[in-house]
Task: structure prediction
Amino acid sequence: MSEPSRLRLGVSACLLGQTVRYDGGHKRDSFVADVLAAHFELVPTCPEVAIGLGVPRAPIRLVQTAAGVRVRGVRDGSLDVTDALDGEAARVHRARPDLCGYVLKKNSPSCGMERVKTYTEAGMPHGRAAGAFAAGLIARAPLLPAEEEGRLNDPALRENFIERVFAYARWQALTAGEIAGAALIDFHSRHKYQLLAHNQAAYRRLGPLVAQAGRRPTRALIDDYGRQFMAALARPASVGNHVNVLQHLAGYLKDVLDGGDKAELQAAIDDYHQRRAPRLVPVTLLRHHLRRAPQPWAAAQTYLNPDPRQLLLLNHP
Ligand code: SF4
Result:
C-alpha cells in the first residue's frame, strides 16, 4: 500500500540549517529539521533573502514609529523593508494554499510571531511586537496553525500544534470545493469530542451554529464555523477535559462491557488522570471496545482516530 501523501508545513529556512541568517549562520532546530522533516514535507522560506537582502546582510530590527511598527536597518535607519516583507508574506500566501501549518523562528523581526523586541527611533528598547513577515502571513491566513520553534519544546504546545495541523488539513480538504450543509454537519459530528476536550464553551456554541445549515448562506456559515473551530482547538486541552471526554465515551459502553472490562477501562482513565500512563492507553481501549459495540457515531470520533502520523509524532520523546 502506498504511503499517504505528506502534509506540507512552511518553515523559516534557518531552522533547517540553511545558512541564510544576516551573519551567514543558521539556527538549525533538531525537532524541526529531524522529526518534523521525517513526517511532513517542509517548505522553507527566508523572507529576508527572498526580498533581496542577501547573505550576509546588515541587521534589521523592529522600530516603533508614529506610523506603527516598521522594520528598519539597525545601522541605516533609512532602510525600511516593512512593505517588502509584507509583500513576501502575500506571495507565500498566494503561492502555497497547500500549507497546513507554519513553524516560525522566534525573536526575528521578520519571522517572530510575537514578543519580538521593538526599539524607539532613537534606538532605545521600547516593547514587543510580531515580525513583519509573520504578521502578514497570519493576517492573510488566520486559520493556518502557526507556532514558533521555541514553543514547540513544550510538550503540550507541541501536541496542540500537531493536532491543529491535522485538523486544519481535514478542514481544508472539506472546504476545497463546493460543500453542502450536510457535509459540515458530518464534520462537526466527527469532531465533537475533540472540541469538547479543548474548549467546552466553543463545543456548546458550534452545535447551534451548525444547526443553521440550510437556513443561512452556506459560505458564510462555513467561514464562521472554520474560524471558531480552529480558534477552539488553539486552546490546549487540559488533562481534566481529556478525562471528561474519556468518561463520556466510556458511558457509551456501560451496557456493553462486563465488569472486568469496565474496571480495566476505568483504571486506564484513572492512570492517565494521575499521569501514570499516556492518554493513548485509555484511547486504545475505547477504540477496541467501540469497534465491537453498536456505537458507530462514537467510534468515528476524530478524538479516537488520530492520523497514524500524528500518533507517531505525539509519542516522540
Ligand atoms: S528568521 Fe526568518 S528572515 Fe531570519 S534568517 Fe531565519 S528564515 Fe531568514
Notes: The two ends are 28 Å apart (CA to CA). The chain has a mean pLDDT of 93. Residues 12-14, 20-21, 46-48, 105, 108, 110-111 surround iron/sulfur cluster (CB under 6 Å).
